[in-house]
Amino acid sequence: MSRQKFDLLSFTGKMRILHLTWIAFFLTFVVWFNLAPMLQALRNSLGLDQAQVTTLLVLNVALTIPARIVIGALTDLWGPRRVYSGLLIVSALPCFAFAMADSFTQLALARLAIGFIGAGFVIGIRMISEWFPTEELGTAQGIYGGWGNFGSAAAAFTLPGVALWIGGEDSWRWAIGLTGALALIYGVVYRAAVRDVPEGRTYFRPRTATAMQVTSKTDLLLLLAMKLPLCIALGALAWRLREVELLSSAVLQAVCSGLLLLFLCDTMLTLRANRLVLTGEVPALERYSFRQVAILSTLYFATFGSELAVVSMLPLFFAETFGLSPVSAGVLASAYAVMNLMSRPGGGWLSDRFGRRPTLLILTAGLAAGYAAMGLIGADWPIWGAVAVAMACSVFVQAGEGAVFAVVPLIRRSLTGQIAGMAGAYGNVGAVVYLLVYTLVDTATFFFVIASTAVLGFVALLFLEEPSGEISEVAADGTVTRIRVGLRA
């Protein structure tokens, strides 16, 4: 692959793939977050109460937890081109269903299904890692993530205006349905316009896609422990649905039993996929440190998890705190997400230039301070002050996300989709946890809780190793085929 100049204005070679892929990610976020700016109109149209509104917010991010694990594995197995296009096309269907819903139950089921599109992020992580060299990877991943995440801001400040232009009680339906149509069309375009790897390169697949492979017994235990919170978060969601009487007690028990069975089955598959670890010793050249995956997942819990939660509630928070209209509140709240355009690429660039670990330490400390400041926002604040604090906080949050995924592709290329899926799933676990907290406490406490978890992430970061050295990349048949930069085992 030629090392062409990193020129954002170019639309050829690797830059063409970057642009086409961030646009795909952008559209997934437009669809995923078309709910927040429409909440007031939707609530008035269908007469929803506050408990139902907050439940929809939690449902919006719930299914993305298992979806990111599944989509990550499918990406490694089938390639990002087919998986991304398929996800965009299929996810348009629940989007249309949500736009046509006329009861809370229909809204809840459609919103739960729409959450699957949030898994699109991990697909692009693998695609970008195939097209860019290591020294540009942090910047490229930051641009992909940041410009794609901007879809939530675009939804916040455009959809209320679209609904106002259409007019009428059902205008919110047309605005949301439009986002599904865009995803459907672009899914077809993306499949025809990209390829998984540059010409002449091999697409490395894992030996098995049923479970992530690790290279030591300690890492195997850590992997199993890391999967337990994913099931607990889904159980907490089921409990929330019982609280708003969307599920009966019998169904709640069945869901919890099913989650336990799912965890046991997944444990068996994980043990089967890692038989070599249990029966022998993995060759030194094939080892990698899964502990780094756990640390990065913890950080993504605090960074992306908090962003999802805050983006979901911020328009309504601004509207209720300062007495704003839906359009005004949506525009102001979008200031939090709009920083993605610069912050997330900036986090990746800083990581490429100054090192992964130092950059993450500084950014995590900043986001903890930022959320503590947001917890002080009240009706006596000037609106410009509240917006300024939200924007400053978002800089650290989103730059931290970019810095996290400047490390993820450097762990093991053939497992990039699964590793990104694990870290991404923890981002959604964070969103579910934070939004459940939001349903139980006041807004100030909500922000202080996020700040506290960021401090825990900072402590975990102290054990992260700076990427260095060289490790082998192993093909699906077990052949050692090339050497690349990676993380010390």
From TrEMBL:
Keywords: Cell membrane, Membrane, Nitrate assimilation, Transmembrane, Transmembrane helix, Transport. One of its GO terms (cellular component) is plasma membrane. The chain crosses the membrane at residues 20-39, 51-71, 83-101, 107-125, 146-166, 172-193, 220-239, 251-272, 293-316, 322-339, 360-377, 383-407, 419-438, 444-464. It is found in: Cell membrane; Membrane. InterPro entries: MFS, MFS_dom, MFS_trans_sf, NO3_transporter, NO3_transporter_NarK/NarU-like, Sugar_transporter_CS. GO terms for biological process: nitrate assimilation. Residues 17-469 form the Major facilitator superfamily (MFS) profile domain. It is a multi-pass membrane protein. It comes from the Bacteria. Its main location: membrane. GO terms for molecular function: nitrate transmembrane transporter activity; nitrite transmembrane transporter activity. The keyword Transmembrane helix applies. Belongs to the major facilitator superfamily. Nitrate/nitrite porter (TC 2.A.1.8) family. This is Nitrate/nitrite transporter. It comes from Alloyangia mangrovi.
